[in-house]
Amino acid sequence: MKILFLVYHGFSEHSGISKKIHYQVKGLRENGHDVHLCYYDFDERGHSCRFVDGKLLKDYGKGKWAGLRQRMDYDCIYDYCVHNKIEFVYARCFMNANPWLIRFFKKLRKAGVKSVTEIPTYPYDQEFTCVSDWNMKLDLWMDKRYRCELYHQQNALVTFSDAEQIFGQRTIRISNGVDFDSIPLHHPSSLIPHPSSLHLIGVAEVHFWHGFDRLVAGLGEYYKQGGQLEVYFHIVGGVHPFYMTDMPQAPGFQTLIDKYGIHDKVIFHGTLFGDELTQVFNQCQFAIGSLARHRSGITVVKTLKNREYATRGLPFIYSEQDSDFDQQPYVIKAPADESPIDIQRIIDFVDHFQMKPEEIRKTVEHLAWKIQMQWVVDQL
Description:
Elements: E1 2-6, H1 16-30, E2 34-42, E3 48-52, E4 55-61, H2 64-70, H3 75-83, E5 88-92, H4 99-110, E6 114-119, H5 134-152, E7 156-159, E8 165-166, E9 169-173, E10 197-203, H6 212-224, E11 230-236, H7 253-260, E12 266-270, H8 274-283, E13 286-288, H9 304-312, E14 316-318, E15 331-333, H10 343-352, H11 357-362, H12 369-379
Parallel strand pairs: 1-2, 1-5, 5-6, 6-7, 7-9, 10-11, 10-13, 11-12, 13-14, 14-15
Antiparallel strand pairs: 2-3, 3-4, 8-9
Helix pairs in contact: 1-12, 4-5, 6-7
């Protein structure tokens, strides 16, 4: 099948979202499909442009009007699809529903081209409750106004939730996948009974719904109550200063660290990749998934991070509902509330944990992107 994978933004070498998109394209190609990647980015002159597979499709020029034109002009993509006999367009939601995008997908449908849009998280409106940027508020208002009409023009929505219908459209339910070639197996430095210390790792571009503050608060309570084992929390990823002090949704990291006097127990590594990231993983015995998805109104979600932890072969904790892992023996389910995480429970779990990393990894072989993306094609 000839497929156009449509993205409404550019890519970053170090972005988890960018990597995921490329792995999805790879998964489709591994199934024998002819896949082309269309995206919006800037060229070396600073011009707003659309590209397909790195080749220029449309140059919109420079300035604010160029950015506006690219949000209104999809004719170049339509012409590409028709000229190249594209059979299926897989788009990724960018909270950008508008009349011009509706017109584009309506034309595709009339031309016999099937289409779906992937909704990365659902529901997502509450993720923007603390946003002060008026442009983002306007984007959300536009999206709410036009999204039902937009998705009515498509064949389905792809979701990582259990929702059978979203915005009036049927869903194709898949799991976030993994690319086994890109994730090394965990080689723990100590997974032995009664270790002298316990190292926890949480990897994310941190937002309030990750709930890492619950882990920091739990660490503070553990030491406050006389905890003897040395427990450390390694946070890997970008942490905006906004999250260091108290906010409406959660206590700030620095506020909690100062309150409990645990400055040496919470380590902020910043963004790491490749061997540097693997080195920190190999220091750690247990991973931290999302602990506060309830803050953004989400109860069921299949996060990419849970799958990456399992692919490395590391046990982990999370608080949402995830049918791929809820019953797995290498998982701790935290309550979906604001209580501090029980650190002693994690210590006891690790103390008695016996599964090897390769055994954990084997349980997620069915989550390979090749399998997940082919399911979407089959459902059309």
